[in-house]
Amino acid sequence: MKTNRRKFIGGVSAAALLSGSTAAFAQKKYDDGASDTEIKIGHCGPYSGPASAYGVIGKGIDGYWKMVNDQGGINGRKIKFITLDDGYNPAKTVECVRQLVEQDKVLTTFNILGTPSNTAVHKYLNQKKVPQLYVATGASKWGDPKHFPWTMGYQPDYNTEGQIYAKHILANVKDAKIAILMQNDDFGKDYVDGFKKGLGAETGKIVKLVTYEVTDPTVESQIIQLKDTGANVFLNIATPKFAAQAIRKVGELGWKPAQYVTNVSASVAAVIKPAGFDNAQGVVTAYYLKDATDKQWADDPELKAWTAWMDKYMPSANKGDANYVYAYSVSFLMHETLKRCGDNLTRANIMKQASSFQKLRVPMLLPGILINTSATDFYPIQSVQLARFKGESWELFGNIMSAEST
Amino acid sequence: MAASSRKWLLALVAAAFVVPLLQPLLPDAVSDYRLFLVSTMMIAAIAVLGLNLLTGFNGQISLGHSAFYAVGAYTAAILMDKLDCPYWLTLPAAAIVSFIVGYLFGLPALRLEGHYLALATFALALSVPQILKYKWLEDLTGGVQGIVLSKPEPPFGLPLSEDQWLFYYCLIVMLILYWAAANMLNSRSGRAMMAIRDYHIAADTMGIDTSLYKTVTFGISAAYTGIAGALSASAIAFVAPDSFSFFLSIKFLIGLVVGGVGSLVGSIVGGIFYVLVDNSAQALSTYVKSDLGLQFDLSAYTVFGILLILLMYLMPTGIVGGVTGVIRRLRRS
User: Fold this and answer.
1) Considering just the CA atoms, what is the radius of gyration of chain B in Å?
2) The domain that contains A109 carries what CATH number?
3) I need a labelling partner for A344 at 20 to 30 A (CA). Which of A167, A233, A372, B2 fits?
4) Does residue B283 surpass a pLDDT of 80?
């Protein structure tokens, strides 16, 4: 097509006019869900159903925004936090998220919980161009800005953590014979995939892998099977209740393998104490959050601030539940993201701010772990530190380890 | 009486066809989200209709209809995902597969009555999500990750949004299935089904092949629920084992009892009721807490439970039974 001079000049002047007008209104820009007085944030999580133990995360986040609002909100705007129950049913999550986006018109979704639930709305939110920020799942697929530029994870992914254990075993255990207990779902599989990736050519060292279902009453028979293989390494990929049962049973059987337990089940109050301190000596895990029940943080200013918040906004809650630490830290990151958006509260700007953190310190993360994101790096936390259980608390050792793979 | 109720039914159907077209006029009242919600109500209604054929008209109890729903949903999802099958073709396929599964399950169910049948179907509901995760089937079902699908697009370039089309799609399927069920129940076979429900031995002596009728009814019931599952796979555009937990069976059962056991209209009402109350219970519980400022931490299910108890107390024969009872009493006076 030939561009004649008149068209060209017309085009240029129109462009100049447009850019002029955007400059004039650049101070305040809003998408749905944001105004001079309010920012609407949507969330859904399992307040009922099989995963309702995670429902406390939503309550914790709600408490965090109450604190923010009591302190005057973000840049003068109050947070309206709308949280819905999806019962850990992905079909219901679709309903809830559509309600949040189309009916309640939230500016952004935040920390939707569960891998299947997030998968169900992944495409939808990206089509609608609504941020799906800091999702509460450790699956590795959330950091894919090329295909899903509106979705971002938060915690270190399971796959990476699995690789880190594999590397530690290869470096520290001679003639390793590895026995694995795995929860039969996406959580378990992601860990095992990462673990195998970390072993590389040495996957033959896995002598046995047994699974259990979340609905099983105990994992005792699985542990007996694993012990009978004569393995000298035990990788415990289980959620808290089962991880505790496994550690206890290993102790009772007098089996003495090098034990690894996943970060999901590293809580002293929920796992180690019920399993018995004696049985848990020497168990290794990877950490990225501070454990509030761990005495080594007793005088830590961040922990004190967290405790004060818990006392004021979550008075009846159990402080031993690590989910509240999680909720607090992830909400802080969202808080910081919105703060940095200033008066430009558009969905695009939220994603821009979320993907340009450099060395941000988030309270309750381990010292030395910082948030780094970029337009190509949608994994906020990629570092963990190994810890060994000693006495009545976890003793961190080695350096902060970051994943090279992701 | 019959003629006037038919007029009402036709008026309702006509209204249902017109409402989505009002979207340009009333964008807030007829939003895509609301249409989607009504579509899920219709899907639930079809599933409850299937259960009603079995429980309400044939007297067999099932706690396992979430399993047939899952079979239908996965049949549709696998056909679309692996074979690029058009979405509308998945409905007959899901119906056939669910019918076969239901029929086969109906064979051992012949030996089980009442509570025993309830337990057997309960086991079915529990096992299906696990089977879907089984490693030999994983390549097909996607295991725990499930299968991500696309939403059906309006055909012939019709100027409808995806949700408007989904609404019509569900509405048409529901009407066809309703019409088929009504005709079946009005026929000789339908009367045989009900005779078995009312008095098994008498039905036998009258020359009804009770075992054939019972197994075929199981199959048809499963097929209806399977079609609902296939529709839901299209509507949600995602299937995963977690969507088909045992609680889904309870949901159908609640819809059945609340709508009215042994009433076709009741099935539709029951499906609508469940989705509606499930959603509003939560709104109500947050309203009580944050707007009224009462310090009751009522969970949504508590509210739901209270509503159910009230309803069962006031209308023990379901909504349809209760409403017709009231109308009858008003006419008499």
Assistant:
1) 20
2) 3.40.50.2300
3) A372
4) no
Q: Encode pLDDT of A356-373 as tens digits.
A: 999 999 999 998 899 999
Nearest CA in chain A to B229: A91
Residues of A in contact with B143 (CB under 8 A): 186, 189
Using CA atoms, how far apart are residues B72 and B63, in angstroms rounded to an integer?
16
Distance from CA of A85 to the nearest CA of B (A): 8
The ipTM value here is: 0.84
Length of chain B: 333
Residue A6 lies in a domain: no
Does residue A397 share a domain with residue A259? yes
* pLDDT of amino acid B142: 79
HEC string of B115-131? HHHHHHHHHHHHHHHHH
Which structural domain range is residue A330 located in?
38-156+299-375
Residues A180 and A236 occupy one common structural domain:
yes
Closest-CA distance of chain B to residue A396, Å: 34
Report if residue B292 sits inside a domain. no
Angle (CA) A214-A216-A221 rounded to 5° is 120
Q: What domain range includes position B64?
A: 32-244
Residues of B in contact with A186 (CB under 8 A): 143-145
Q: Does B300 touch chain A (CB under 8 A)?
A: yes
Q: Is residue A7 part of a domain?
A: no
Kindly report, residue by residue over A284-298, the tens digit of the pLDDT. Answer: 999 899 888 778 888
In eight-state DSSP terms, residue B241 is G
To the question of pTM greater than 0.95 for the whole model, the response is no
Size of interface A-B (CB pairs under 8 A): 79
